[in-house]
Amino acid sequence: MDSKITQLKKYIDEAEIVAFFGGAGVSTESGLPDYRSRKGLYTEMEGQKLNPQEVMSHKYLIEHPQAFFNRRPKKDRVEPEPNDAHKVLAQMEQAGKDIRVITQNVDGLHQKAGHRFVLELHGHSRTWYCMECSRVYKPEEVEKDEQNIPRCPIEQGIVRPNIVLFGENPDRGILEKSKETISKAELLIIAGTSLTVNPAKNLIHRFKGKHVVVINNEEIDTRNLKVDLYIEGKVGATFKAINK
């Protein structure tokens, strides 16, 4: 493992532009679940005979808002904090390294760690909006009706997170910027993602640079993409080792 960490650090040091393409596995060490691992949210749903692409879709939200917002049991929410992956990437950027983050996550932890270049493919949960009048609310401002459905106090429309659901398209501007970022990078780090859904599984093929590194707990499909270095393990622990 030490030799792999040394090699990764060498790749980062040598690259003028680093594209970091991250998924849910980047945030698991912050206490957030992933989606498609053996214990992921979507795997759990499939075990309950639920189709994640149906239950987490725009159509399902419109037709079954009560079920959509009450699917998971209420728990005392602990605000997640950036882990070593978020922190070390931000520190590298602050030290002058051109590291450009493309994330499938909606948790905002890269920004919370201080990273300045973050493209959020699936939106974010920092703001919610009314589907009737487009009024914007912070999550703590959202009011809920007797069925626990978030409602706009003006229009009474459903208030939803500013995230991309199944059946919806990512923001075109973010998507185009992500394509440009990957195509310009000399090093592509793919971390904590299964690469099973669009646009993630297609975006990586825009890479024309020198080296591809994969950091993941489980093997992923990277056909038609030459991987120079594969590190099996946690993303945060890997970047903590780099920082040492």
Automatic annotation (TrEMBL):
Record's keyword annotation contains NAD: yes
Enzyme class: transferase
InterPro entries the record matches: DHS-like_NAD/FAD-binding_dom (IPR029035), NAD-dep_sirtuin_deacylases (IPR050134), Sirtuin (IPR003000), Sirtuin_cat_small_dom_sf (IPR026591), Ssirtuin_cat_dom (IPR026590)
Domain of life: Bacteria
Keyword line: Acyltransferase, NAD, Transferase
GO MF, one example: NAD-dependent protein lysine deacetylase activity
Keyword field contains Ligase: no
Assigned EC number: 2.3.1.286
Domain Deacetylase sirtuin-type: 1-244
Matches recorded under PROSITE patterns: SIRTUIN
Protein name in UniProt: protein acetyllysine N-acetyltransferase
Source organism per UniProt: Marinilactibacillus psychrotolerans
